[in-house]
Design brief:
The chain is built from 9 helices and 9 strands. It is of the alpha/beta class. It is elongated and about 75 Å long. It is found in: Membrane.
């Protein structure tokens, strides 16, 4: 794409002078913007004196401003190209940002109450089918409207329901042990959870298979952790959403992991998922857990055998 654009510019201008004017304005604009932002970084991030930041901006900015004004004189001789490209890209980014904000506001104003979700049952003809349903949403509280429309048109949803919210935080990396925040949506017997997954702007995103496997493993860790830290009675009788808990690998010595096993030997603790055999291991400490926790972990394992299904968005 870059090669095509470069060839198009060369063919369009057919003049190295015009191309040099366009390149010069682009370079000096980047330098001027960098100097301005560096001045802000000196004050906000490096906690330097505002006087020092102002001196830096005046010294370097004044020199770059002279070159910038000289480049603007050549506007009609090729310097218009980078300005046109900048305006075009800014319009695209503005439209994307505006639509994203509007979509979030729509989801926020049309979210469904938790009581509606808990009221869905056999009496209304709602069927809980095998498997794990991942409902992707930007909301960190409440039930997204697209899920309610889905249930209205197709009165069924999965035995294990997970509302997944992916957030990008303004740090380079998020440690794996702090990436997942998991909580319950309603009582424990409803088998509904909320999971917020945090990524830094330099984190490498996992592929779909490894992400889903890691997500299920963190759900199992949360079930154990919740049983050891919170009374079961309060969890079962909860009518609202519980607080979110940071769940990481090997948290508090709890090992409830998903491991890929390439062997073909069948096992009662293994299920097929995306043509690979996935094992869900419960360690010896699980013998000390109460019956309700074991039932919840078994439901999670059984639901995983039914596959993971994504609710990405419903148009009606």
């Amino acid at each position: 794409m870059l090669m095509i654009l470069c060839v198009a510019v060369a063919v369009g201008f057919r003049d190295t002078k015009h191309m040099g004017n366009a390149s010069g304005l682009a370079v000096i604009t980047v330098m001027l913007v960098t100097t301005s932002l560096t001045s802000l970084v000196m004050i906000l991030c490096w906690q330097k004196s505002p006087l020092l930041a102002l001196s830096f901006f005046l010294i370097f900015g004044s020199i770059e401003a002279l070159y910038f004004s000289a480049s603007l004189i050549k506007f009609l001789e090729g310097a218009w190209l980078p300005i046109l490209l900048a305006i075009f890209l800014m319009i695209i980014m503005y439209v994307w940002h505006y639509a994203t904000i509007k979509k979030y506001e729509f989801d926020l104003h049309n979210k469904v109450s938790l009581n509606w979700l808990l009221g869905l049952g056999d009496k209304l003809g709602i069927v809980r089918v095998p498997g794990i349903g991942l409902v992707y949403t930007d909301l960190i509280f409440g039930i997204p409207a697209n899920f309610s429309r889905f249930v209205t048109n197709l009165p069924a949803f999965h035995r294990i329901l997970v509302f997944v919210c992916i957030k990008f935080v303004p740090v380079p990396y998020v440690p794996p042990a702090e990436r997942y925040l998991v909580g319950r949506v309603g009582p424990a017997n409803h088998r509904s959870y909320r999971c917020i997954v945090r990524y830094g702007y330099r984190d490498v995103h996992q592929d779909v298979d490894s992400f889903e496997s890691e997500l299920v493993a963190r759900l199992a860790d949360f079930v154990k952790l919740d049983a050891s830290c919170c009374p079961r009675e309060s969890s079962d009788s909860a009518e609202g959403e519980c607080g979110l808990t940071v769940v990481g690998s090997n948290l508090l010595g709890l090992h409830s992991n998903l491991a890929i096993d390439d062997s073909i030997a069948p096992s009662s603790a293994s299920v097929e998922f995306n043509e690979r055999r996935v094992k869900f291991f419960l360690d010896d400490s699980s013998e000390e857990l109460d019956r309700q926790v074991m039932e919840e972990l078994e439901d999670l394992l059984t639901a995983q055998g039914g596959g993971l299904h994504l609710y990405l968005g419903i148009r009606m």
